[in-house]
Amino acid sequence: MSAYKAMAARLLLLAWFGMVNAFAQTPTPAMPPASPEMEARLKLLETELRCLVCQNQTLADSPAGLAGDLRREIRLLADAGKSNDEIKEHLRARYGDYVLYRPVVNAKTSLLWFGPFILLLGGAIMVWMMARQRRAASLAATPAISADEAARAQALLEGNDGPPH
Fold first, then answer.
1. 20, 29, 35, 49: which is deepest, by most CB within 10 A?
2. CA distance readout (Å), 134 to 68, 102, 104, 130
3. Which CATH number fits domain 2-99: 1.20.120.430, 1.25.40.20, 1.25.40.10, 1.10.8.640?
4. Which of 62, 30, 34 is nearest to 46 (CA)?
C-alpha cells in the first residue's frame, strides 16, 4: 500500500508542477514610444489588417493577445524600414488573404467578391422566369369568348345595350 501512496504522491507532485508551469507565462515587454508619425502609420496599418482570432475586427480594435503580438510584429517590421505594402505582403504570406481586411481580387477571392452579385442575378432570373410562367398559365386559363359575346361586350362599351335577348 505504501508503494501506491508513493506513486500517487509523485503523480500529484508532477501534476502540480505542470499546472504551475502553465500559469508561468511572462507578458510581452512594452515597446518604447514611437514618434507621432510612426504611431499614425501603425494605426493606419492596424485598421487595414484583420485580427486572426476575433470575428470581423481590425487589429486596432481587437483586445486579443494574438492581436497584440501582431501589432508588435508590425511595429518591428516598420522599425526595420519595411514599407506598408511590404508589411502587408509579409503578413499575407504568413497568414493568408484572411489577414487583409479588404482582400485583393484574385482567383482565390473571386467568389468572395462576385458571389453575392451572381446570386442576386440568379435570383432575378428565377423571379422573371416564374412571372413569365405564371402569366402564360393565366392567359391559357382565360376562356375564349364567342363572336356573339364579343359583339355584345363591344356594344356595352359603346353605350348600347346590344341586341335583345
1. 49
2. 59, 43, 43, 6
3. 1.10.8.640
4. 62
